[in-house]
Amino acid sequence: MKLGFNEATCMKKSSLEMDLELCERYGYDYIEIRLDMLQEYLKNNTIEDLKKFFKHSHLKPYALNSIEDINFCSADSWNELVKLFKFACEVASEINNPYIVVVPTRGDDMRNKSEEEVFRDSVEVLNKLSDIAEPYGVKLAFEPIGSIKWCVRSIRQAWEIIKEVDRENVGIALDAFNIFIYDMLSDIHDLDLIPGEKIFVYHINDCEDRKLEDIREEHRLMPGDGIIPLDEISSKLKSKGYEGIASIELFRPEYWEMEPEDVIRLGSQKAKPYL
Ligand code: ZN
């Protein structure tokens, strides 16, 4: 697998310019650019600047993060979402960035939706986004999030949706933390259901040793520092021939307070054993 960096990891102290420079310096192969940080960058820079950087760097763009709350949209929220999604597709095709991460809807009311409702809605919405993305040559990586607040939570549930959608440009984003918090990976064998070519993105991270119901985003840790069986995930991905990104994605306030350079250096050391 290739070493990747997701910009969420240092988003409080860093910028796209700084992440690009540091990821290149510390040997990362790919970066996952955040759309909010890209919009900030474009206040003082252009897409041409970004293209120029990638033309001369080892570092390449991989997946834009992220289009969120894609399910059960109102007409207004759908229009907003499509506007952002089209912007992402345009940038992606300009800079040769193959994937966009799309995320199911979060909300307290999501636990009242039946799996059948969520399935039908997800299939419809992913098809619509797939239609929009196709002319740009961009692919959608759909990321299940295990917490009860999200409407698509498990590996199996996400895969059944993607299988039904059955489009060449729709696959899965596996996030070690997000699949772990569903049921501490008691369902890890469900990874066997997914063919290697449908795994588009892998977010690598670890989790503090806590009771499942107490785990929050801020308990994400550097790979190897927690209790997620990352060796097992790695060997499953490798056995499928997955050679894509393993991207450090952490939402940990402690890392947000650190110097981005220290976090990015540490991230490359921590992730390498699992590539
Ligand atoms: Zn993720």
Walk me through what this model shows.
The protein starts with a strand and ends with a helix. 41% of the residues lie in helices and 16% in strands. Helix 5 (115-133) links the parallel strand 5 (99-102) and strand 6. The mean pLDDT is 98. The protein has 10 helices and 11 strands. The strands form 2 sheets. Strands 3-2-1-11-8-7-6-5-4 form a 9-stranded parallel beta sheet. It has 275 residues and is of the alpha/beta class. The protein has helices at residues 16-25, 35-41, 47-55, 75-95, 115-133, 155-165, 176-183, 230-239, 253-257, 260-271; strands at residues 2-6, 30-32, 60-61, 63-67, 99-102, 139-142, 170-175, 199-204, 206-207, 220-221, 245-248. The protein is globular. Bound molecules: zinc ion. Zinc ion is lined by residues 143, 175, 178, 203, 249. Zinc ion (ZN) binds at residues 143, 175, 178, 203, 249.
Strands, helices and their partners?
Layout: E1 2-6, H1 16-25, E2 30-32, H2 35-41, H3 47-55, E3 60-61, E4 63-67, H4 75-95, E5 99-102, H5 115-133, E6 139-142, H6 155-165, E7 170-175, H7 176-183, E8 199-204, E9 206-207, E10 220-221, H8 230-239, E11 245-248, H9 253-257, H10 260-271
Parallel strand pairs: 1-2, 1-11, 2-3, 4-5, 5-6, 6-7, 7-8, 8-11
Antiparallel strand pairs: 9-10
Helix pairs in contact: 1-10, 5-6
The structure holds zinc ion (ZN).
